[in-house]
Amino acid sequence: MLKHVILTRFLKNKLAAIGFCLLSIFVLAAIFAPFLSSYGRDSIDLMNIESQPSLKHLFGTDELGRDVFTRLLYGGRISLGIAVSATVLQLLIGVTLGCISGFYGGWIDNAIMRIVDTIMCFPFFVIAITVAALAGPSVWNVILIIGLLQWTGVSRIVRAEILSIKQSEFIEAARAMGLNSFEIIINHLLPNTLSPVIVNATLAVAQGILMEAGLSFLGLGVKQPEPSWGNILSAAQSMRVLQYEWWLWIPAGVLVFLSVLSINFVGDGLRDSLDPKMNI
Question: pLDDT tens digits, residue range 195-224?
Fold first, then answer.
């Protein structure tokens, strides 16, 4: 019954439904990329270097004669995969430390919150660019950089939720039944923090796409020839490309924009549908 109510609320939000449909299209296109293009990811056509969009190459070709449409499909795998993987890493760190901090309190809470405050004091891109320059550009490095620098928000959310419910009667009853701290956190506290965590996770995926695009645009993210929407966008660093070869950067920019917008719409829809105060 509850799942039906949540689904009904979500579907009534037209922007959320549109965002979910768009996002589903992007994910399916990335998964089935080999079946949607007749070209290989790195296939080179020396007779069609930097050619304009045509029936042969729907989105034209790049400076090496590679099909841009094909690389956008495969780039979606990398960009979306990095965003989701980095979000999972954020949740693992943030939820774990948030639970420990909120449940135990005292010096443990103070120590974890001071770490959170310290990390939040540093601007993300300054640290990310420094670490990426030292570690080198790669998919795994981008995932680690985003995940290890962006877990603080979800940690604060989980801590606040646990602080508000850990003195509830059902928690006292669980203690009286002899449940240990781990069982109380896993079986009783953590399930009650899922709603804000799910909403935060959707927005974290959107942030991950933007962060990957930013790092790859600067040459510090995903390395060529492996495509991502960010390093495809890096072609726009050339004034000639900006003025005369729009197909090398506008499609990638549109995909980043639409994917982030869709995820934000889905996040807003989930927030409203999971809110018990909302009416159907």
Answer: 888 888 998 999 999 999 999 888 888 888
Q: In terms of residue numbers, what domain contains 7? A: 2-34+67-273
Determine phi and psi for 173, rounding to 5 degrees: -65, -40
**What pTM does this model have?**
0.89
DSSP 132: H
Q: Are the beta carbons of 74 and 227 closer than 8 angstroms?
A: yes
Q: Is residue 256 situated within a structural domain?
A: yes
Q: What total of structural domains would you count in the chain?
A: 1
**What CATH number should be reported for the domain holding residue 117?**
1.10.3720.10
Here the tokens at position 53 are 């969009």
Closest CA to 57 of 245, 184, 185: 245
Tell me if 45 is assigned to some domain: no
pLDDT in tens, 47-93: 888 888 888 888 989 888 899 999 999 999 999 999 999 999 999 99
Helices (H), 13-151: 14-31, 33-36, 68-104, 106-121, 124-135, 139-149
Sign of CA dihedral 114, 118, 79, 251: positive
- Is 103 within 8 Å of 181 (Cβ atoms)? yes
224 belongs to a structural domain: yes
- Compute the distance between CA of residue 72 and CA of residue 77 in angstroms, rounded to an integer: 9
- The reply to whether omega before 225 is within 30° of 0 (cis) is yes
Using CB atoms within 10 A of its CB, is residue 70 exposed (0-12), middle (13-18) or buried (19+)?
A: buried
pLDDT higher than 80, residue 6: no
Q: What is the Cα 200 distance to its own chain's centre?
A: 10
